[in-house]
Every structure is written in C-alpha cells, then in structure tokens.
Amino acid sequence: MSAKVNAALPLEYQTEQNRMNILGFWVFLGAEIVLFATLFGVYGVLGERYAGGPTQKDIFIIRDVLIQTSLLLTSSFTMGISIFEMRRSNIKGMLMWLVFTLLLGGGFLFMEVREFIHYVHEGATMQTSAFLSSFFVLLGTHGLHVTIGIGWAILLIIQILQRGLTPVTARKAFIFGLYWHFLDVVWIFIFTFVYLQGLVM
Amino acid sequence: MDQHSKGFPISHVIGFFMSLVLTFGAAWVALQTSLSMKAVMWIIGTLAVVQAGIQLYMFMHMNEGEDKVANNINIIYSAFIAVVIVAGSIWVMTSGHSH
Question: May I ask the CATH class of domain A54-200?
Fold first, then answer.
C-alpha cells in the first residue's frame, strides 16, 4: 500500500491503493452492465415466445413485484446511510444500517424465491418456453448477485467488528456499497422492462 | 464531499424519495393509464434511466474523488454498449426473417 495518506479525504479514498481499488471496481461494474445487457437482450428477443405456455399477464402479480421493488429500493437507501455514517466515523450507526440493508435484501430474496416457487406450481418452469427460460436466467442472475452480496456483507461486518474502521475496511465497505446500489440499478430495469412491460403488453 | 460527512444525509433522503416517486409513477403510468403501449414504454423507460442516474450520482457518489472523469467515461461507455447489445439483438432477431 502506498505510504502517502491524504487525511483530508474520506477514509476510503485516503491511499493510492484504495483509489485504484475503487476505480477498478467501477470498471468491474461496467463489465457487469454488459453481462446484464446480454441477458436483457436475450429476454427482449425471446420474451414473446410462449410455446403455448403462460404469458407475463398470466403469472406476474404486480402487488408482490411492488413489494420486492420497495424492499430493494429501501435497502439501497439504508446502504447509502451506512456509508454516510462510516464517513462520520460512527461504526455503530454504520453497522446498524448495514444490518438493516441485509434484512431488506433478505426479505427481497425471500419474496423472489416464493415468486419462483409460485410460478413453478403454476406450471411455468424454465423448460416451459423460451420466454420463461430467458426470464428465469435474467432474474436468477440478479437474485444470485443479491445472494452473493448478502454473504459478502456478512464477512465485511465480521471484519469491521474485528479490525474497526481503517482505510482498508472503509474501502471494502464503500466498494460493497457500490455493488449493492448497482444491484438496485439492475432491478429498476428488470422492474420496468420485464414486469411493467409484461403487464402492459 | 463535505456535505456527506456531517449533519443530515439530505441528498440520500431526497434520492430515496425521488426513487419511490419514479417507481410508483412508472407503475401508475403503466397500469392505470390508457396510453398506447409505445407511449407507455417511452415514459417508463425514461423514468428508469432517470432513476438509475439518481442511484449513480446521489448514492454511489460517481462524481466525487479524483477518478470521476474516468468513472463517468467508463459507465457512459458501458451504458452505450448495453444499448447496442439490447437494441441491436432485438433489431437483428426480429427484422431479419420477415424481409
């Protein structure tokens, strides 16, 4: 790590190493955007190939989708507050908001798994049609990211409890924050171009 | 950066409130109005892009730090590639057979 520490900046930006790590994570998010773009592209092409199976209108339940969206949106907000508290060197507040974020993320995952189980009971499985294959791959990839994010944050909380707030743990928390907000950005597009569009069609 | 480190997280609260308005606004436009499919998609698509911008600039602090220019170029370029992949795929796969 660079010995040059600029104490005027927030903890996560104080060393050259940290700035490079954060920039590198932005580049990774650029690659993630392209990953999700390919899945949206597939869904956009196959979304109306029902093969005699159910359509979006047959299976989507808008109330549950709005609850999921609210949970994830709120978790993105609490994540932002967590980083805000981190910048005030308030570890307690930071961890409290991070735990809220995880609970909301867990609630989102619970709703999504329940939604998938409901679809399968209705006979809408990955094998049913091209629409459902592309739907489950797109939504599943997003849900997998959320699941990985929850595991990541739990490890992060353990490390912050052990080491306290240092430029290294602050940088890790900040990068996790970027990841979590990014998942909300992806969800906005799923909400708009999968759920809402499916219900308008 | 100063406004992030002390006082009340006002930009986060504003961003959260705007996100909620945009989300439920999009749901309302899509489900409660009788606009054409095309009009609805343009409106809610625009709302989605605005909301993504709120996340990037108000929550992810994309415009702070020394690397903000690199961040902006990176994300705008990625968004461009995303549009090319999605719009290009749909265009190629739906217009080819019928001509």
Answer: mainly alpha
| Annotated domain spans of chain A | 54-200
- Tell whether A27 is within 8 A of chain B (Cβ): yes
| Sequence ranges of the domains in chain B | 1-64, 65-99
d(C-alpha B53, C-alpha B22), whole Å: 12
Determine, for residues B89 and A44 on separate chains, whether the beta-carbon distance falls below 8 Å: yes
- Residues A190 and A40: their CA atoms lie apart, in Å, by 8
Residue A44 in contact with residue B89, Cβ under 8 Å?
A: yes
Chain B residue closest in CA terms to A44 = B90
CA–CA gap between residue B82 and residue A122 (Å, rounded) = 33
**What is the full per-residue pLDDT of chain A (201 aa) written as tens digits?**
445 677 777 888 888 899 999 999 999 999 999 999 999 999 999 999 999 999 999 999 999 999 999 999 999 999 999 999 999 999 999 999 999 999 999 999 999 999 999 999 999 999 999 999 999 999 999 999 999 999 999 999 999 999 999 999 999 999 999 999 999 999 999 999 999 999 998
Min Cα distance B52 → chain A (Å) is: 5
With an 8 Å Cβ cutoff, are B9 and A81 in contact? yes
Tokens describing residue A47 = 């979304």
Q: C-alpha distances in angstroms, B65 versus A8, A30, B77? A: 12, 18, 19
Who among B1, B30, B52 is closest to A185 (CB)?
B52
